[in-house]
Design a protein that fits this description.
The complex is a heterodimer of chains A (about 325) and B (about 290). Chain A is α/β, with parallel strands linked by helices. Chain A folds into 2 domains: about 160 residues, Thiamin diphosphate (ThDP)-binding fold, Pyr/PP domains (Rossmann fold, 3-Layer(aba) Sandwich); about 130 residues, Rossmann fold, CATH 3.40.50.920. Chain A contains 13 helices and 14 strands. In chain A, strand 13, helix 11 and strand 14 form a beta-alpha-beta unit. In chain A, helix 9 packs across helix 13. Chain B is an alpha/beta fold. Chain B has a single domain, classed as Thiamin diphosphate (ThDP)-binding fold, Pyr/PP domains (Rossmann fold). Chain B is built from 9 helices and 7 strands; from the N terminus they run H-H-E-H-H-E-H-E-E-E-H-H-E-H-E-H. In chain B, the strands form 2 sheets. Chain B has a 5-stranded parallel sheet with strand order 1-2-3-7-6, with helices on both faces. A two-stranded antiparallel ribbon of chain B has the order 4-5. The chains are: A alpha/beta (about 325), B alpha/beta (about 290).
């Protein structure tokens, strides 16, 4: 089991980690090119643009074209990373991702920032809660949601090495860093962050930290919860899920709609391999709204105390 | 530089053969898009049999010029040009659109070596072509990119995103060809969604525009040569063409956008095309 760093956890931004990692990749591999759609200051691809201006392409506010251009780079032997906010990286250009990237299995890395409700004040238009649903429905697409800045770096390095289309889902706000430098990230592998015999919490992305904290709250109340962090939503780690299902109760937690995200992926697999009672925590079948990230997490039940509360109720039934 | 009459004639002969292939393929499949395939044939012939640097025996040759068929539905003409130039056996053309074929209903690069990108959903090819052109710049390569679009396809917003970007990046190694047959599925392009003044639109986006008769092999060859010499901006060749070119009942008739001829219609079409081919001195085989 990977050791989680001792508390207090320091905050760091996934976006900054992404920007720095791109610069590192740019130095290692002259085939890495980066595209952005007028949000390079937000996505932090500007770091790469500054270091390697001849390999950085600001495509303007034109995501459909950016997606096709990325495909053109990929078929020419380049390794394109394309970035913008998650709503625009998966929704605005869905058909382009489907036709020009996924279907021909082109080696494009879609790295989106600003997923989930933690985008905050911008409101529902900018809060992607269906992006995992869109991307995981595409054949050949790998879908990854790192939990913190360290895992972001490791995930970006890993996807640069694999061949094929990938969607990496990052968030806007800095978040606690729980993984140390020795953490071993592998595409397609879940990691148990905590053992437990009463219930297993399966989490991804930004919800892994509150999942761990919820397990701590539950422990203080006599409920022994395991935590399985699932950074790769597709392909999902079925072996890890089978082990988690030994508790006979599963709770999935994600900053995404409960429809067609991690919760659905877990349910689809366990329904076949080992039917297990499951509760899905995420945003319900609704759009987000304006507010601070903290307010929205609280309102939608995505804080550690609220997650723990719901699990307690689930344990009684 | 004027092209030798012998060269022009040899290309016209190949185009005549491709048109016959197109009708045979679509008739065999019982499904497909003859109208646009026939309008695009002459430009594709010029590209595959003279203008482009490519090696059918080594489709992944890195220095090759790239061809993108953005109007993917007219792939029968492309498949024929590829087969006739040696990418795969001509006999394979008759597998078009059938289960297990490499000749998918719309071009799929993952099935058939020599296809540069997968197309079919309209409006996407020019972006991919731009990516290839920019990749040449990044890699300091000399290859050129040719992208054929339909005119109806210019309804798509993504085309204009790509047009703006290519103008912005001044990709003079990118040549687009607009197969301006003035018909789309629901009728005349100007009635469905007005495109004119189409040349002005492309100019306004920073492109060099050349307007030609898209069935004059000489004009096509001259335009392709000229585009190569233009620096600092991409070129679009607006090739005025006839949808269904060469088959009397298909010409300028939107009904033949996406319909296979029946047995009788196929016989008439082939008779007409074979007569045209014979006139150019092509020996037409009577197989299949």
């Amino acid at each position: 089991m990977p050791a989680i760093l001792p508390k207090p956890w320091q905050n760091a931004g996934m976006r900054e980690a992404y920007g720095k990692t791109l610069v590192k990749l740019g130095a290692e591999n002259p085939n890495v090119v980066v595209l952005d759609a007028d949000l390079s200051g937000s996505t932090q691809t500007k770091m790469f643009g500054k270091a390697y201006p001849e390999r950085f392409f600001n495509m303007g506010i034109a995501e459909q074209n950016m997606t096709g251009v990325a495909a053109g780079f990929a078929v020419s032997g380049k390794i394109p990373f394309m970035s913008t906010f998650a709503v625009f990286a998966t929704g605005r250009n869905y058909d382009q991702v489907r036709q020009s990237i996924a279907y021909p299995e082109n080696n494009v890395k879609i790295v989106a920032t600003h997923s989930g409700v933690s985008v905050g004040p911008d409101g529902a238009t900018h809060q992607a809660l269906e992006d995992v649903a869109l991307m995981r429905g595409l054949p050949y697409m790998t879908v990854i949601a790192p939990a913190d800045a360290v895992e972001t770096e490791k995930a970006i390095l890993a996807v640069a090495k694999m061949h094929g289309p990938v969607y990496v889902r990052l968030t806007r706000s800095p978040s606690p860093v729980i993984f140390g430098p020795d953490y071993d990230f592998k595409i397609g592998k879940g990691v148990f962050l905590r053992e437990g015999k009463d219930v297993s919490i399966v989490s991804t992305g930004t919800m892994t930290v509150p999942a761990v904290q919820a397990a701590e709250i539950l422990a203080s109340q006599g409920i022994d919860a395991a935590v399985l962090h699932m950074p790769t939503i597709k392909p999902i780690d079925v072996d890890a899920l089978l082990k988690a299902s030994e508790t006979r109760k599963i709770v999935t937690v994600e900053e995404h709609s409960v429809i067609n995200g991690l919760g659905s992926a877990v349910a689809e697999n366990l329904a076949y391999y080992n039917p297990t009672r499951q509760m899905r925590i995420g945003t319900e079948d609704r759009f987000g709204e304006s507010g601070s990230a903290e307010e929205l997490y609280d309102k939608y039940g995505l804080t550690a105390p609220k997650i723990a509360e719901r699990i307690k109720v689930f344990m009684k039934h | 530089m004027p092209h030798a009459p012998e060269l022009i004639l040899s290309l016209e002969r190949i185009a005549a053969k491709i048109r016959i292939d197109v009708i045979k393929m679509i008739a065999k499949a019982g499904t497909g898009h003859p109208g646009g395939s026939l309008s695009a044939t002459d430009v594709m012939t010029a590209l595959y049999f003279h203008h482009m640097r490519h090696d059918p025996k080594n489709p992944k040759w890195e220095e090759r010029d790239r061809f993108v068929l953005s109007k993917g539905h007219v792939c029968p003409a492309l498949y024929s040009a590829m087969a006739e130039s040696g990418y795969f056996p001509v006999s394979e053309l008759m597998t078009l659109r059938q289960l297990g074929t490499r000749l998918q209903g719309h071009p799929a690069m993952q099935y058939l070596p020599g296809l540069e990108i997968t197309t079919g959903s309209l409006g996407q090819g020019l972006s991919a072509g731009l990516g290839m052109a920019l990749a040449a710049r990044v890699g300091k390569k000399e290859w050129r990119v040719y992208c054929m679009m339909g005119d109806g396809e210019n309804d798509e917003g993504q085309i204009w995103e790509a047009a703006m970007a290519a103008g912005h990046f001044k990709t003079d190694n990118l040549t687009a060809i607009l197969d301006r047959n003035s018909l789309q599925i629901d009728g005349c392009t100007e009635n469905v969604m007005c495109l004119d003044p189409i040349a002005d639109k492309w100019r306004a986006f920073g492109w060099n525009v050349i307007e030609i008769d898209g069935h004059s092999m000489e004009a096509i060859m001259d335009a392709l040569d000229l585009a190569t010499t233009v620096k600092g901006k991409p070129t679009i060749i607006i090739a005025k063409t006839v949808k269904g070119k060469g088959v009397s009942f298909m010409e300028n008739n939107a009904e033949w956008h996406g319909k296979a001829p029946n047995k009788e219609q196929t016989e008439i079409a082939l008779k007409e095309l074979e007569a045209q081919a014979a006139k150019l001195g092509v020996e037409v085989s009577k197989e299949d």
